Model the fold of this input.
Amino acid sequence: MLTVSLTAASGQVVGVIGPNGAGKSTLLSAVAGLTPVSAGRIRLAGQVLDDASTGAFVQTAGRPVGFVFQNYRLFPHLTVADNVAFSPRARGMGRQAAQSAAGHWLGRLGLTDLADRKPAQLSGGQAQRVALARALAGQPALLLLDEPLSALDAGTRLDVQAELKRHLAEFAGPCLLVTHDPLEALVLADRLLVLEEGRIVQEGTPAHVARRPGTEYVARLVGLNLYAGHADAATVALRGGGAFVIPDRGQHGDVLVAVRPSAVVVSSQRPVAGSARNAWPARIAGLTLLADRVRLDLDGQPPALVDVTPAAVAELSLAPGTEVWLTVKATDLEVYPHAQRQTS
Amino acid sequence: MVTFPAPSHLTARERARRTARGGASRSVPAPLLVPALIAVGFLVLPLAGLLIRAPWSRLGAALSGSDATQALVLSLWTASASTAISLVIGVPLAWVLARSSFPGQRLLRALVTLPLVLPPVVGGVALLLAFGRTGFLGRYLDSWFGLTIPFTPIAVVMAETFVAMPFLIITVEGALRSADQGFEEAAATLGAKRMTVFRRVTVPLIAPSLGAGAVLCWARALGEFGATITFAGSFPGQTETMPIAVYYALETDPDAAIALSLVLLFVSVVVLVSLRDRWLRRGPVP
Done:
């Protein structure tokens, strides 16, 4: 079940992120008309597409919507050119006119050389561009993208991502983009919506959501430690046990505290006479080697993810089960109110 | 004290096959081999007998006898007409069964597949009772239009369509059920209305199964005997199809009977080879 209220302005790319099963694909399905809404309303440019209270429902074929599917769904029996020309022809254009419209879009996305190929002969990146060209050739008023880059391997993804951002910027109408990849959302979206268990739990610019995640899921996505607690001026009592000293800004009430893994210091002994206001014991539960650092998973009150250099791991003989002390400065803590739904 | 049975023998070739590709012993145990061989004999010997006893040197003459040629021509065009009709009315029915939903759909599906199990001669009788001169529809055709269907080539086509169309419907319905509807969804988002989707996406994607179904339908129509002889009779040149001609020729002109049988056997083999394993495995071929 999905309960969502969102508005997308012209030219804006709205990214919807959330764990699997949150309802992201259902959202796109409903906007495309593949699934009717059980309650509520969908309007595009002032025209009602779906209204549960009045019963009005515009069929998918009648909606000026372009859909780029996760698995592209290029028609296997048609050439690239025929795929791209499909929408103009289906909407009534003659064969010649449709072919030249297709030619225009093939040119814009750099696909002219591939016009006579069949989808089975395309690489992942090429197929993605053809899917986009096919959706755009129908002159849609709204563009829907379902995990547009997830089917690509990591190398191709970066190139295609930059290109996609360019094409989306050139598209005049609103774009609704669904993804589970935080980097994709951060790069492509102008506004982010976080969808969890069928509800929007946070909304804002990508930068804001990344800095002040509203839920554990988003925090994990963007790689931050997130704690919920109750603030009382200069201290926060954490829900899972433990407490933090925070810069006194007169905050009271339920708050979230975000800490970067790289802002936490690991010591083998209890630190004395340092400026950091927060210190607590913890035990290493696991180590993960990342590209240029080691991420430690620590149990304690509170637990934490901490990034250190491989050299530090060796020097301090860090291993699962090692008892350590963690310290973090009050000024490195990002504290913000915890409401049911945060907007920026 | 552990005892082992005496080892059996593994040929070098068998050893090589099993080390390379794994898998258990492929030899057949005797209790299964003997009945299997009897089954093979039962199926193959009659066909072999046909090939062995055929008057190969006199075949051309036997086939060019007027009765035989007429039967051949009649069979070919009626089977083709039946297939064409089956395609025109059967494919839409297959779509209705596969894609829509309405009360009584299961019953309809059972009715549609009834000719597959119904004895063909019963089908012929049913057609006679419906379209014969005193049949509940035929009487109107006769009194209003002076149209008599039984014992005409039209009757042949109707009888063959009755028995053969379900083959096409079943094949196409199976293909539609297992088809990936994601493409049809994509077509809808591109602005294609339902008949456009059917024409440009659904049908092309099930084309292999459609072809296989049509070939099966044609072969079944060609070989029909019971319904045809009951509803259409056996007037040479008018309603005497190849199977009926074979039946009568056995008494009067055995050479022609054997020649026609060989033609039918040949057609059957060609059909099976062209379908290969497609019709044994239902659904669209990627």
